[in-house]
Structure prediction request, 884 residues.
Amino acid sequence: MSELVDAAGEFLLARSAVDDDRFLRDFASMSAFGATPAGGLEREAATPPHGAVRRWLAAWLEDRGFTVCRDRIGNMFGLVELNPDAPYVVVGSHTDSQPRGGRFDGAYGVLAAAHAVSRVCRHYRDTSAVPAVNLAVVDWFNEEGSRFKPSMMGSAVLTGKLDLDVALDTADTSGTTVRTALAAIGELGQLDVFDDAELPSAYVEIHIEQGRILDKQGIDIGLVTSTWAANKYEIAVVGAQAHTGATDMADRQDALYAAAKAVVAVRELADRYPEGRIHTSCGQLTVLPNSPVVVAREVRMHVDLRSPSSHILAEADAHLQQQFAEIAVTANVKFETRHAHVWKANFYHQSGVDLAQAAVRDLGFSSREIRTRAGHDSTNMKDIVPSIMLFVPSVDGISHAEQEFTEDRDLLNGVDLVAEILFRLTRGHALGGDHLDWNSLT
Amino acid sequence: MSELVDAAGEFLLARSAVDDDRFLRDFASMSAFGATPAGGLEREAATPPHGAVRRWLAAWLEDRGFTVCRDRIGNMFGLVELNPDAPYVVVGSHTDSQPRGGRFDGAYGVLAAAHAVSRVCRHYRDTSAVPAVNLAVVDWFNEEGSRFKPSMMGSAVLTGKLDLDVALDTADTSGTTVRTALAAIGELGQLDVFDDAELPSAYVEIHIEQGRILDKQGIDIGLVTSTWAANKYEIAVVGAQAHTGATDMADRQDALYAAAKAVVAVRELADRYPEGRIHTSCGQLTVLPNSPVVVAREVRMHVDLRSPSSHILAEADAHLQQQFAEIAVTANVKFETRHAHVWKANFYHQSGVDLAQAAVRDLGFSSREIRTRAGHDSTNMKDIVPSIMLFVPSVDGISHAEQEFTEDRDLLNGVDLVAEILFRLTRGHALGGDHLDWNSLT
Prediction:
């Protein structure tokens, strides 16, 4: 196999139509685990279909010489040691899905990572060159957070933002803990794979955009420069259970009435700002006891506020809290915040964006800088190691839905780009620790 | 045992402190099946605790010489034939409860019926008189409707308002049908016990008020003259699933936002009328897929409108439908009515109220006429046979809640009254078929 050199004298990794075919075939195989009739996935964290796709992935990696291991929060790693004295670069995403989610969200990034590492390793088998780093594919545990909250759990534990035992003791709505669920699918490891004493030197993740900017503008690759700030709350609205027919309207302490007013307030909060300044939602709401002829005694709801500006987020949040206080009086109920998960708007690394930008240019792709509104495991990882986050287009921006779709061409472009970035890191490109800042954003 | 005669020469049934003690002890035993720590019940239709209370009840009845049988929709009857040529009078209520419901709702009426019939039978064992009717205790299947909809299922099938197979094929939210659930607890009968060819001659039911009128006014007994009209709807709000963070606010078809606006509209519809003219509620609401970071694709909700006036109900309903249409446009979703269960305001029998009124007076109780806002199995039965519906007080009007409470004295008064009414029916008091009407209401 010969090395390719671009006009500027940079080496480019070999690619082929055979590689492309294999990737698409593997992606189809992977998408069968938890597949829904409408082309999506039902593969929540640590459910049987999630266990099945992990066994498939582990076999794929072991067949190609990776050493597969799981850490104590169920992150799965596929390690390739190329240079015993060098640090690891970690690359990956997650194989868990939302209920009736799409088959690209997360899973694409894991398979792209596996193929890209495999391609880099193949290159080194044919040369005497010594790579500057080792490579590890990661499948983070519970990025989605639909079954076990919070989201991005595996990377939060690895980066020290979430206590391991708190995470393992987290229960789903049926009372099953993360610990029990991971053990049941055989994915609960006994050791740390990476820890403070032995951090990776960089992290790379590719993901579908889950928005329509790239698709609308016909651009191949998004180079992620920053994340939106987010405030996520679990709220309990506490009223009093009563008979719907027999109880006077004035005597009711209807938790669902109050929760409904809160959902409306959350949605209409966004209308106070121009589009794109704040996103608000309530996607989860549980009514107790949820009987047709019983006034609800309690409603548990999840409120999600996101903004590119921490300032706007704080202002909107304060306004919402005031509205909740007024609703509590109107409906004669209490609002209790049971849990909060908050992160500020912050930035990826300049050196990572620069490296990705150079690779994009040399491969002949188009790109633009972009902010991510969704959280990703790189949101956690970028706070401890230089990180690169890449997007490929999502048709119509649809995500967390079975209709989620990305064109084959875009999938394959992404694999090439990840391979090329990893290749450059193995050839000694080091990433600096400087985060971007507001002034650098286009 | 001697017969008692009041001032007007009417016979009164014997009562004793021993009877009272036995009733309270039996009520405590019965309340243990499905008991919650807070003093309520979790005994939804055809669940294991419901099966257990039925086995207890069947043994109680058989021990006292009743013939116990179940019909094809799982109504349980305890028959006592006193005169082979006479028709039956049926008396009872239901032993199923709401989730975290109270221990008096329904169960009290069944046990009061059993004790009252037992007391009347004891009287006839000591005389040579031939009763004019036979007596049957009934425990109707699925009055509550929390697990299987609609409510008042057993009496709806017996009265021909609901098709037997439709009822048996009704599934709960986990997909278990009435047929399967009844068979599992051994309560699915093979035959009709009562049908069009052999109707009872009267129906009697006693129940806690589930309102605060008797309690507030210090009155012993409510004589029910009429029911409120009710419109109950199962509605599906259909939007489109999407990522809460990544999807532009303007692009959302958020089913939960629309459903929340609908819940608020339902509640605030009641504020358009004076208290007591209309009750509205939404007690059941289910979000799909119900994940914190997913815009809901569908919400299923149960809307319940009730009024003493069919006219007000129709007017309010039309206003609400108009609001739903406007919400559908605002939120870019569809409202689909999946099921409707509707009944008009209507009336009990003049002869029944008169008989109960006379018995109340002779027993020295206070009483008032009252309308029921809740539905009861007598709502169905009164349309085919002369029916008497009685209330005892509920402390603070609390019902469908664990705090539901009725004083022992009121429970015992009710048993005495039912026994006395049954006694008078066995002595040849016949009930006429004339319903009350608007002009007769106080």
